[in-house]
Amino acid sequence: MLPAGSRQDHFVDFAAQNMTKKSDNLLDLEAICERVIWSLNLSAEQLMTYARENRAEALHTINNPKNGGIIILGQQAIDRFWSIATRHLKNHPDRRARTDLAAFVKLLRETFSDHFLDQGREADQRNVDRWISAAYAKLAKSHTAVTHFIPCGLFLSSGIKRFQVGPVTFFHRSEFFQIHGDAIEQQRESIRAKHRKQVEEAVAKGFPAANAATPEQSIQLANRLTDGLLESFERYNWFAEISIADCHPDVSYNRALFTVRGALNILKVLLGSYYTNRLCTANDSSGVRKAATLIRDEKGELNISVSSTPVDNVIGDQWLDRLTADRYFPILSDVLLHSSKFDPGPPLCARLMDALFWFGEAVSERYPAAKIVKFVTAIECLCGTGIEKSLDGTERGVTEIVTSRAAILYSVFSNEPMEAAKKEVARIYTCRSNLVHGSVSPHDEKVAAELARTDTVTNLIILAAVEYYRGLGLKDTSFNEKGLRAAFNRLEAWNKEGRPPTPSSV
Predict the structure, then answer these.
(1) Model pTM score
(2) What pLDDT shows up at residue 345?
């Protein structure tokens, strides 16, 4: 029953609940309610004092539906909303990948105020389940299937109109606007008409007509949005098209960017860093291509210079033939396709995508030291399986594990003798370690000298890993880290027998 006649009259009397085992969600709900009761029982003066003395805690609030104000809960109570949301999604894998966690937590907080403060529902298992379900149902209404069109920097081209990498289709601007140009222009009228309808509905519901947007303002809005899109798209010669299944809008856009960047990273690996350093999406910082400098010379005169770098790489139109002829192109395209889906993908595909991400970031990075760190991180993604012990019981550190396994893979694809491969991998790994641990300055000239070597070694290790992972079961959804560790240990044991590695043995 709800206690009456107090500021707590919208909450359950927790002592009167049954003593059966409570779920974690119910325990979290009770803790939140207790904190609400604590906050409501403080006087205005006490609340002000608490807020002054605990500024960080006072930032964590929920809405009070009774007076339109806020209720201070503090960090720990708000964390319980996150725990409930995370727990729910963990128990519903089909929802987890499609849901924006922050948006879910926001709705949990809003529906908590509605269910337990405004409606005064008891904090029992039935109501906690209903509360969570109501919040998710409200969130799910925003889920939708969308096709995204993302501007990209690729290659200057006069003859190539479109090409595909896994689920991503890239259109040259001439082809893109031939297909979509008229529809984009038609948005001017569509946006105007939709806005006029919204204005008329608002006025019909009582909004003052004198304060409502005019027809001219509706036209201005439509033109501003359409012209803004065209102005933004004007800077790019390529557009990536990717369709994402129904999910939260933020999740959809992030998944689209992830997939398009994955496609670009495949190009970076297969075509090499030299020809792909400008590849980017419009959302990447590397897309900024104009710069200006202002200096005062020794005579005291100001000098202005402006530079503009082409968005696209200039390599001719032969790159597509080279790309599609590469034996790893269909393999990596398939990896991207599997990784773009919401279903739990094959773990080895996920590792390859992580490695491609770091390789792609390294290619686009401007500073040699940061490039080396990112290249070597790509190697760790492929070869690292955590700290483990040797057969004699001694602990193997990450450095030993990664360099040993990476050297075997590098030896296969570089045709380097095993000892030479070990030295090469150890050299770049040591350079990375010295950089991140501060023993070498990122501005040291030796760092730039190591860059080309690190780039090449990493590229070959990635391709060798593709071959190795294929043999292990690239599409096997049950192949976990434990299985990869065991497979690498077998490869290392085989190598210790002294047999020279070959592509077929990997």
Answers:
(1) 0.85
(2) 85
